[in-house]
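Figure-free illustration: sequence to structure, shown twice.
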Amino acid sequence: MRAALVQDSGINLAGAERFSSKRTAALLPKCSRPDDVVITTKGNSTGRTAVIRPGDPPAVYSPHLSFWRVLDRRVIDPGFLRQWARSTQCQEQVRAMMSSTDMAPYLSLRDQLKLCIALPPLSRQRASAALLGALDDKIDLNRKMSATLESVALALFKSWFVDFDPVLAKSEGGDPGLPIEIAAIFPDSFEESELGRIPKGWSAAPLSEILEESIERIGNQAAPEYSSTNEGLQLRSVRFKKTLSRSATRNKLIRRGYFVFGLSRKVLNFGIMRDELGSVSPAYKVFRVVNPSVPPAMLERLMRASPSYYYRAISASSREGQAVSTQALGVLKIVQPPQAIQDWFFSIEMALAQRMKAAERESHTLSSIRNALLPKLISCEICEADAERVVERST
């Protein structure tokens, strides 16, 4: 049975075993219900909590999860229980009770029953839960909005540069659905190329004319280490605990815009450097863009849009995975759109990115406020009216 996961952003039911009928639910002892507080009871994430929201799909909890369910709402408000589970009052008790098995930390059901919660009057519970819940909802809304904006950028890129929708619409005498000044720069027909049909006037360029391998070592320069993953390039200190080696002098140097290819299994493992300076394992292949008409961001999106095509650059050369062949990568080609169309896309993408950054900044502010207010409201150190004034002043 697959497990639901408690994550920093909430509970992820995507991989959980679902049930579809009331009869099935009645037979299963650990079925989710709205307002359940879920806690991880085994593993490195022991003590992490989340809540089942109304509208979340029903699921069966895994053996490594426990749930706390309010049975009498005249005594405790579910929203208050949710906020208390995240408070230092709860987490300090949980940490004190956790024991370690041979494999990982563990929190027993017996210990969970010993947890103590101080309950203010029900009216104060509801008021505190409503205020903190409103902050949580706004943070969650910002997260969903950012995900939607990123999806819009991905869909627009695929439409323009992979599916060639505006060109297809014009070639059939239709309306591409774009502002006149943007529609005018797309051609109205296709031509044959080594990559198949591409928009007339666009070119198919081999990566050997766009990328150049870099083997420059970091030497004694001070620079953080990065690792290439299936999700892109990431700081090694954030993703992994193990260091690459005692001496990093042989690491390859990477600069902003460089492409780093790691060892691949089934999917192309690569990332683009977004910071100024860093280093990666000598086993990685590093390339820099030498064609100014192909921005690194454009190339990255093209490669992620057609991963199976670019996976052809992989050659079996390592026990731990398969490495990119410089020669095989060089013969692969990309469709190179005119600069004017690229400029329009990146201007739209920048506007979307700015909105995402604004939402991220707001969420950071709201999270700081929520974290500061949470212990004070849970312990009744301040009243809801004072907390609301803090929120108003800060936002």
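We now fold a second protein in the same way, so the two outputs can be compared directly.
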Amino acid sequence: MQRVIVYSSDSCGYCQKAKAFLREKGVNFIEKKVDNDPSAQAEMRAMKAQGVPVIKVDDEIIMGFNQQRLEALFGKKVISCPKCMTQMRVPRKEMTIKVTCPACKEVFQVDLRTLL
């Protein structure tokens, strides 16, 4: 299970959106409010972050609310079949996966690193 920390501020709209997105995806996270928490402020300075939200997923740091990047980190990604363009969701468990299109039965490989 991934360890997720959200550095946020009560007055930040993007912080609210980021936390709502994580809740919608069922991602458990620890919230650290930098408004009045000197230790959270120090942690952000150590990451060279100057604004919120900052989302730390294990050792990866995401500055700002980047929904596509978070989507890629937390499970599934939408891809299209190269033959018939049918869209499908694939798990984000490996870097390269073999996919069979449910519509046309085309078998192809997807390098998920290129979809980030």
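Summary for the second example: The chain has a mean pLDDT of 88.
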